[in-house]
Specification:
Length: 194
C-alpha cells in the first residue's frame, strides 16, 4: 500500500518548517516558501490568509507533533530510549542538511516578537516545548523519578537538546550531541535509580 502524496497545504507547511530551520523566521518569506514547496503563491495565501504568522504557527505545530510522535513511541521503552530517540531526530536533521538546518521550533522562539503582542507562532512554540517536557517528565515519573525532579530534568533535557542543536550547527560537528547525550543519560539513570 502506498502512502498518499502530501497535499499542497501540507507541502507548504513542511516547506516553511524546513526554511525556518535553515534561515530563521524573519528571513523566511511567504513567496520563498511557496517556491520551496513548489506551490503556487496564490495557494499559499489561500491556505494561510493570516500570512506568515499563521504559516509559522503551523510549521511549529508540525515539527512539534513529529518529534512528539517519536518521543511517545520510544519512551515506551523508557526515558533513556526516549532521550536517545530525541537526540537522534536532531542528529539526523543537522547531519542530513550538512549542518545547515536546526530546529524550527527553536528558530521561531528566538525571533523578536512585536512589542505589543504574543504572536500565535510563539504561543505554539511554548505549547510544543510544554508537550515535549510533559512526555519526558511522565516517563521519568513512571520509571521512579520524583515528580519535581522529573519535571526539572525534562526541562533540562529539552533545553539542552535545543541548545546542542544550535552548537552542532555552529561547530559543524555532532560532538556537542555526543557530550550532551552522555551527561543527560547519566542524569536520567541517577534519577530513576534513586
Amino acid at each position: 500500500m502506498t502512502k498518499p502524496s502530501p497535499t499542497t497545504r501540507e507541502r507548504i507547511v513542511a516547506g516553511a518548517a524546513d526554511m525556518i530551520s535553515r534561515r530563521g523566521l524573519n528571513a523566511t518569506s511567504i513567496r520563498e516558501t511557496a517556491k520551496h514547496a513548489r506551490a503556487p503563491l496564490g495557494s499559499t495565501y489561500h491556505y494561510f490568509p493570516e500570512g506568515k504568522q499563521q504559516l509559522a504557527t503551523e510549521a511549529v505545530r508540525l515539527t512539534g507533533a513529529w518529534a512528539a510522535r517519536s518521543l511517545r513511541k520510544e519512551l515506551e521503552a523508557g526515558p533513556v530510549a526516549g532521550l536517545r530517540a530525541f537526540l537522534d531526530l536532531w542528529r539526523g536533521i543537522v547531519v542530513d542538511s550538512d549542518f545547515r538546518a536546526g530546529c524550527p521550533v527553536l528558530a521561531v522562539s528566538i525571533e523578536e516578537p512585536p512589542a505589543d503582542e504574543t504572536p500565535t507562532a510563539l504561543a505554539a512554540v511554548a505549547d510544543v516545548f510544554t508537550e515535549w517536557e510533559g512526555l519526558l517528565a511522565g516517563s521519568l515519573r513512571e520509571h521512579g523519578a520524583e515528580p519535581e525532579q522529573a519535571a526539572q530534568l525534562a526541562t533540562l533535557i529539552v533545553a539542552a537538546v535545543e541548545g546542542t542543536v544550535a552548537m552542532c550547527r555552529a561547530k559543524r560537528s555532532t560532538q556537542p550531541l555526543d557530550h550532551t547525550a552522555a551527561q543527560l543519560q547519566a542524569l536520567i539513570v541517577a534519577a530513576i535509580r534513586d
